[in-house]
Amino acid sequence: MAYTVKGVVVKAKNEPVSVENIIVPDPGPGEAVVDILTCGVCHTDLHYKEGGIGDEFPYLLGHEATGRVAAVGEGVTNVAVGDKVILNWRAVCGECRACKKGQLQYCFNTHNATQKMTLEDGTELSPALGIGAFAEKTLVAAGQCTKIDDVSDEQNAAVGLLGCGVMAGIGAAINTGEVKRGETVAVIGCGGVGAAAIAGAALAGATTIVAVDLDERKLTKAKDLGATHTVNSKETDAVEEIKEATGGFGADVVIDAVGRPETYKQAFYARDLAGRVVLVGVPTPEMQLELPLLDVFGHGGALKSSWYGDCLPERDFPMLVELYRQGRLDLDAFVTERIGLDEIEPAFEKMAAGDVLRSVVEL
Predict the structure, then answer these.
(1) pLDDT higher than threshold 90 for residue 342
(2) Residues 109, 45: contact at Cβ < 8 Å?
(3) Structural domains present in the chain
(4) What span, in angstroms and rounded, lies between the C-alpha atoms of 248 and 66?
């Protein structure tokens, strides 16, 4: 039998979101229905609302979520009813060329639920990142459910952020940037993803971590998460300040968590010779980058893009939850406020103004 639940929908580009009755079908083969417990308000959801990702409206927003499995379809073996899960948008296929090379974190054919959730009038919904978790229940591919050890109701909001932004930032440092003990790191842009990259660099053992932003509030939070130096790039030259903090050489790893040509150039020129640049901020389609090819050659090193922190959810989520339980990763620091389904529109406004790291919906 299908479920009728409340969910947050945007029906057209730049329209305000609305709480609607949505129909969630019983899970089919390889699918699962999940009772949503918490879901972070991520910038990606705002991109969907603004039409920056696609035009397959209406969208059921939300993807950065914890939940409990309510029902599973035929053939599902990775999770069972009652399991606590973090939802992910990389349900690996096991068959594509990346998977067959043993690089599951780059799976080129990640999959979602086959069936569609709908509005009450039968209009099909496009779930954000194949998840759609601003809802009391959602339908996903079973592979999008990563089982974790149970945590308290109070902790659900924090661990759910591993589903997207926090994992993207931590992974950009640890997985993509391969930060090593004793290295120097700079992070440009200290919103949710950039702040997580700082926490990831600290976890990896970086001894110098330079946080760069235009907002003093974000720089203060960056210090709480492990930054050893802060640079307000509205007031000073970020490249020169990063070099000064790293003995005049530049950082071993520079992470661009903004994703603009200007910040990428800062990252490129703020690294040491043979250093690594990691782009984890998402550019928009019209952006163009120009760099002298001789400088690209002369600096050596590596220019990398980080997709979802190059994470493998079944490997990384449980590990990071355990570090959180041990007090070695402060996920609570990312939760600025806890809200209800009817407070998402104001949460978008707070996010755009830089007033929050994460608003988290609790159901």
Answers:
(1) yes
(2) no
(3) 3-163+330-362 (3.90.180.10), 169-306 (3.40.50.720)
(4) 44
What Rg, from alpha-carbon coordinates, does the chain have?
A: 20
- Which tokens sit at 139? 């339908």
313 upstream amide cis, omega within 30 of 0 = no
Q: Which two tokens stand for residue 29?
A: 């083969």
CA distance 140 to 181: 38
> In this structure, which amino acid lies at residue 33?
V
pLDDT digits (tens, 9 = 90+) for 16-71: 999 999 999 999 999 999 999 999 999 999 999 999 888 999 999 999 999 999 99
